[in-house]
Every structure is written in structure tokens, then in C-alpha cells.
């Protein structure tokens, strides 16, 4: 059962009394009308109140937009963007599971929008065709730890067609003994390909620690595509 005070707080926020955002009321008047039209039936009123609160929660949640690049050498690539840049990329996953997982992770409403990701897809297509060696895109990494951001940003400096090792990455960051931590940070790379973690290998040159697509097989495919193997 919906607490009356919680309902009042939701409506107060929507009316601008508790920091509501301009424009949040679009689409909510019909929900209010449902409450007023429900008459003395307490159960109907309660249901209408709950529906209103759900609509309010949705309008106040951040929005992310995603699209899919279907035909690539490594399988379908799903791309998520927000107002501040590319948020996530996943390879070879199921669409429904992907959208649900992203929504839970970022506590956001996730909407399919090919238009929003068109620019990213264009650059990825150029990359797969061998016409692009680096990407000119904003990347959103603010939700990651400072160390992981350091590792991922350093990875951007590895040119196409070249490889390095986890140990060398650790040395570049001034943390010689942290090769394993570097590997863990790269294994959690939320934006593979754009952040080329596939170019980092074990000290003996073997392929390790790639979680995208089919794992090591996908890592090898990307390196072969770039002429690094």
C-alpha cells in the first residue's frame, strides 16, 4: 500500500516545491485526472496514485540511448550513449538482457535510438574497414574509480597495430608491482574497442583477460584486424 506522505512528496516535487526539473509534468496530467475521476473508490484511487508515482519516478530518472551495429567481424556490437558521451559497449549479447543490465547498472531509463548512436557506428565502421586508427568520441568514465580511469586513459595511447603488456602498463603508471591490478581494471573496461584493452597482453605475449564477445577469440580477431599479430 502506498504511503500517503510519499505520494504527497512525489506530487510536491513535480509541482516544483522540492527541486523538480522544468518540463517533468508532460504526460503526467492524465495520471492525475485518473485520480480525480476515480471518485470515492479507495482501491481505484490507490492504484491511480501508484501509477502516478511510477510515471514520476521514470521522468526523474536519467536517460540513456542505445543502438546496435549488427554486421561486424566480431558479431553484433551494442552501444550506449548519454548526454556526456559513450557509456558502454558490449559485443555479442542479447538485446533484452543488455538493455535491462545497463538500466540497472546506471539506474536509468534505457531507450533504443539509432539516431543517437549513428556517429559512433560510423566511426566503428571506418575502424573495421581499416580507415580509422583512433576515435574522436567523448567517453563517460566518471562512475569508475580513479585508478581504473588512469589505466583506461593510458590504454588510449596504444596505437593501432601495436601491443604492450600489463607489466609495461603498470610501469607507465608508476606502479611497477601493479600488473595484476592493471589487468583487472582492463578486464572491467566498459567501452571495449574504443578503449583498446585488446592491445594489452601478458608478459609472455599470450592473450588473456578479454571479456567481450567470445573472449580471447574476439581479442585475437581484433589484433589480426589491426595487423598486430
Q: Key features?
A:
229 residues, alpha/beta, four-stranded mixed β-sheet, 45% helix, elongated, 9 helices, 12% strand, two-stranded parallel ribbon
Describe the structure.
There is one protein chain. This protein is α/β, with parallel strands linked by helices. It has helices at 4-14, 29-37, 42-59, 95-106, 114-128, 146-155, 166-172, 179-187, 216-226; strands spanning 63-69, 77-82, 85-91, 109-112, 164-165, 200-201. The chain has a four-stranded mixed beta sheet with strand order 3-2-1-4, sandwiched between helices. A hairpin with a 7-residue loop joins β1 and β2 (77-82). The mean pLDDT is 82.
In short:
This protein has 229 residues and is α/β, with parallel strands linked by helices. 45% of the residues lie in helices and 12% in strands. The strands form two sheets. Strands 3-2-1-4 form a four-stranded mixed β-sheet, sandwiched between helices. It has a two-stranded parallel sheet with strand order 5-6.
Low-confidence stretches: none
Name the helix and strand elements from N-terminus to C-terminus, one letter apiece: HHHEEEHEHHEHHEH
Side-by-side strand order of the widest sheet: 3-2-1-4
With helices defined by DSSP (H or I, 4 residues minimum), what is the helix count?
9
What is the tally of beta strands? Answer: 6
What's the helix and strand layout?
Blueprint: H1 4-14, H2 29-37, H3 42-59, E1 63-69, E2 77-82, E3 85-91, H4 95-106, E4 109-112, H5 114-128, H6 146-155, E5 164-165, H7 166-172, H8 179-187, E6 200-201, H9 216-226
Parallel strand pairs: 1-4, 5-6
Antiparallel strand pairs: 1-2, 2-3
Helix pairs in contact: 1-3, 2-3, 7-8
